[in-house]
Amino acid sequence: MSIDTIKQAIPDYAKDIKLNLSSLANDEKLNEQQLWGTFLASAMAGGNAFVIENVAAASAEHLSAEAMNGAKAAASIMAMNNIYYRFVHLASNKEYQTMPAGLRMNVIGNPGVDKIDFELWSLAVSAINGCGMCIDAHEKQILQHGVTKDQIQAAVKVASVVQAASAILTAEAAMTADSQAKAA
Fold first, then answer.
1. Is 22 among the residues known to form the active site?
2. pLDDT at 180
């Protein structure tokens, strides 16, 4: 199981996604932990079981158990935060911005891995989930700690391509299931 397994499952009409998966898996803008943590957090955010399984297997070759857990934690906490803060940001009633969230977010303060890597993974997941408020907050944190805009872009490119692979394979599975149901 690997990135190559995902590429083989992607149909030819999405050849660009296959090519991007290859090039991003070898990108050197991010260190190994940042790159593979971004892959894993993004796969989890994408929600496709096949992509998650294969990215997790590939990531396990590059990440410690703590980093694997940190990437999973970033996907987990951002699944909650991105919805909440996107609501706060988009709601016409700005009073929500002054109200305390009242949600537990302890993992952000103690992610078990380098805080900047966790912030980078959280940024990637926030890009997938479309939360501008979270994107801005995480970008500010990582820029203050020396992460470059090229590195941020690299993480978001990983997120976009992993999300595309997840969406394609989810749609293909749904079309296959629909065809099988009609044939039955």
1. no
2. 65
